[in-house]
Amino acid sequence: MTETVVTKHILMVEDDALMRRSLAFNLEQAGYRASTAASAEDALVLVSHDPADLILLDIGLPGMDGLKAMHLFKQQGDIPIIFLTSHRRELEQALGLELGADDYVTKPFDLNVLLARIKAVLRRFERTLAAVESTTLVVGDLVIDPAAHTVTVAEQPLELSPREFALLRVLAQRVGQVVSIDDLLTLVWGAEYLGEPQGVYVHIRWLREKLEVDPKRPQRIVTVRGVGYKLEPQTQPPEV
């Protein structure tokens, strides 16, 4: 029995009008809901009102290019992205940034190959999301529930921003281990932020203000000078 995808929304960002129409038609025939945009700027507006399950993103767009657009899409949410490219230089540039996208397809492409890539990326993304969302992290009296997006300390709820939550979760997944600044940037902000550690410093300070009895003498989120940070379990109020 053939498996049919009937609910996934695919957004295609491509400046070639003929390709947009043709691929949108074929995506609909394959059981997806397809929408299109001729520019990254239009796509960013569209996806803010109608979230996509996957984005097909041309790298060589007029105006804002696909690489810049990818970073902005990722800031809106964890959306899987497949790059479309017809130029080797574009692909080499994307690979130089460690893609950041979930896959890429070079033009001209076989429709069946593209559909297979779409299905594979969606399945991989769903498996990863399910694994992350189903795992509650317990670090001493700190409990992080990704599915409910909640954090409690000694059974008291904490209000965290999405970035604070993501940062704390990464530290909790490696409890007792030192996580470098570069790793935190890559895992929480994205590889494109390497060399810009200020965001990590600021968010660590905000987390300490919410987690620590004395933020100036932290015992949960510990600094390992010159390396990074590690999360230490606490089962009773730290000594001040």
The assigned structural class equals alpha/beta
SS summary, helix count = 8
Count of individual domains: 2
Q: Describe the biggest sheet?
A: 5 strands, parallel
What is the fold-level CATH name, i.e. the topology of the largest domain? Rossmann fold
CATH superfamily of the largest domain: Response regulator
Succession of helices and strands: EHEHEHEHEHEEEEHEHHEE
Q: Give the strand line-up of the largest sheet.
A: 2-1-3-4-5
Envelope shape: elongated
Low-confidence stretches: 1-6
Q: How helix-rich are the residues, as a percent range? A: 40-55%
Strand content: 15-25%
Describe this protein's structure:
The structure is a single chain. This protein is of the alpha/beta class and 240 residues long. Helices cover 42% and strands 20% of the residues. It has helices at residues 17-29, 40-49, 66-76, 88-96, 111-133, 162-173, 181-189, 198-211, and strands spanning 9-13, 33-37, 54-58, 81-85, 103-106, 137-139, 142-145, 150-153, 156-158, 179-180, 221-224, 228-231. Helix 2 runs parallel beside helix 3 (66-76), helix 6 (162-173) crosses helix 7 and helix 6 crosses helix 8 (198-211). The radius of gyration is 21 Å and the shape is elongated. Mean pLDDT is 84; it is low at 1-6.
